[in-house]
Amino acid sequence: SPNERVVTEEEWLQKWEMGNIGFHKEEGHPLLQKYLDVLLNGRSGLRIFFPLCGKAIEMKWLADMGHSAVGVEVSKQAVKEFFSEHSLPYCEEPVPETSGAKMFQSTTGNISLYCCSIYDLSSSIVGKFDGVWDRGALVAVNPCDRQRYANLMISLVGKNSSCLLVTVSYDPNKHKGPPFYVPESEIKSLFG
Question: For S-adenosyl-L-methionine, which residues are the binding ones (predicted)?
Fold first, then answer.
């Protein structure tokens, strides 16, 4: 069963080290562009969360529009590449509440990337968000961790927040993932 496959943190780190990052896109995602109005809902200066962000270029794109982008990524290499590829100066500091975690923040302060496991975060550390752009997190999370992930996402969003979620549809008997197949019925049961 594809639900038995478990991808370890070490496997994700190795993907970054080996440059095996076919999931990273050099262009902004067309669905974010298409549904940006749904995410923003006419509001400005929002805090947008990017779970399992990698070096997603949409973080800079939204920050350039006047929003704050906050991401979490287990790969320090991905985080450093994000700042380097956008020529963004940043500072690095430990996250006191989480052993070994680091927070990398642009010197302008509008992009903050936490380098740690997503499950090391909580609203007491990162606050609440007005929106979430999940371009590949739910489908990357191990199926056995989906409920934990959904509970965390729900705890991180404020009232009147919006979440854009991208999944993939395929025959789960032909591909074990990641990306993992997440049926629409499961999305509804996870997020209501």
Answer: 12-23, 52, 73, 117-118, 135
User: Residue 160, SS3?
Assistant: strand
- 15 labelled ligand-binding: yes
Binding site annotation covers 146?
no
Annotation-wise, does 191 bind a ligand? no
* Alpha-carbon span 67 to 50, nearest angstrom: 13
Work out whether strand 90-94 and strand 111-115 pair parallel, antiparallel, or are unpaired.
Answer: unpaired
> Is residue 17 part of an annotated ligand binding site?
yes
Domain containing 51: what range? 9-20+27-191
21 labeled part of a ligand binding site: yes
Classify residue 111: in a domain, yes or no. yes
Asked if 70 and 50 touch (Cβ cutoff 8 Å), the reply is: yes
CATH of residue 168's domain is 3.40.50.150
Q: Does residue 3 have a pLDDT over 70?
A: no
Asked if residue 61 is part of any domain, the answer here is: yes
121 located within any domain: yes
**What confidence tens digit (pLDDT) does each residue in 42-73 have?**
999 999 999 999 999 999 999 999 999 999 99
- Residue 20, annotated as binding a ligand: yes
Number of domains in the chain: 1
In a domain, 145, yes or no: yes
The rounded distance, in Å, linking the Cα atoms of 124 and 88 is 27
pLDDT at 2: 47
- Write out pLDDT tens, residues 67-98: 999 999 999 999 999 999 999 999 999 999 99
